[in-house]
Amino acid sequence: MNKSLQVKKVLNNNVVVAINSSGEERIVIGKGIGFGKKQGEEIFPKQVDKLFVLRDENEQEQYKTLLNSIDEKIVELINDVIVHIRTRFKNELNEHIHVALTDHITFAIKRLEQSMDIKNPFLTETQTLYPKEYTVAEEAIEIINKSLGIHLPEGEIGFVALHIHSAITNKSVTDIKKHSELINTLMQMIQDSFELSLDTKSINYLRLVRHLRHAIERVSMGDIMEEQEKLANVLKEEYPLCYNLAWKLIKVMQNTLQKPVPHAEAVYLTMHLQRLSRYDNDDK
């Protein structure tokens, strides 16, 4: 923001509706930004260091609706958390995080008050796929717990990590959750096929989970991979169980993503599966 905004309406001490020089409405969010402000007063650029401006009209309306049912203390706390996230990643966040994270944390607190515990079925995969986001999410949950004197469950760290990843990559939380759930399903299929309880901390497990993530992203974006027919024939002959399992996984990916998966993915999956099965069997 390089020009001042004019206050139109103070929603609370931390949120105001403002008008820019073009007459467009904005939601300005920041600690104490609305305190003592009156209609027509200016908000200057130097005040916006730790502030956020919602520009999208739909986001503005959703945020206004949320404010009607949320304690101002919670709003201020979540904004502090978002400032912390932005600082840790040293870049701008998609403005949707204000709506999404405010809504999610508010609902999580209500669930806690009502003794409702919602399990996070892909917590391990989230920690593996997005390690920095997970670390920052841990910090965010710790800030919330200390400030409110509560104890949000560990599963919330994973959910917040997905919101953070969404905000820094501009991907929808729905797609990110869908992909995490798919990876969880694929890893369970692998464990069942190998009749093993995989070591989630092993390097081969981490490599496979990350490979699946990149494979899903490639398929989602329609990336074309070079065919590996000769290598595929060798792997099919040498490691038939891993090769067949790779194709089972690919069929699940195709059904879930509703997109074709290049045959070359079977080659890379087979190599990862062989490495994983050999490592874990050696450790038994």
UniProtKB/TrEMBL annotation:
Is Repeat included in the keywords of this UniProt record? yes
Entry coiled-coil feature ranges: none
The yes or no answer to whether the keyword Repeat is present is: yes
Task: Tell me which SMART domains the record gives.
Answer: CAT_RBD (SM01061)
The PRD domain, residue ranges: 69-174, 175-283
Top-level taxon: Bacteria
Q: Which Pfam family is one of those matched by this entry?
A: CAT_RBD
Task: Give the InterPro entries listed for this entry.
Answer: BglG_antiterminators (IPR050661), CAT_RNA-bd_dom (IPR004341), CAT_RNA-bd_dom_sf (IPR036650), PRD (IPR011608), PRD_sf (IPR036634), Transcrpt_antitermin_CS (IPR001550)
Entry keywords, A to Z: Repeat
NCBIfam families per the UniProt record, alphabetical: antiterm_GlcT
Q: Which PANTHER family match?
A: CRYPTIC BETA-GLUCOSIDE BGL OPERON ANTITERMINATOR, PROTEIN GLCT
Q: Please give the family membership noted in the entry.
A: Belongs to the transcriptional antiterminator BglG family. GlcT subfamily.
Name under which the protein is recorded: PRD domain-containing protein
According to the entry, what is the taxonomic lineage of the organism?
Bacteria, Bacillati, Bacillota, Bacilli, Bacillales
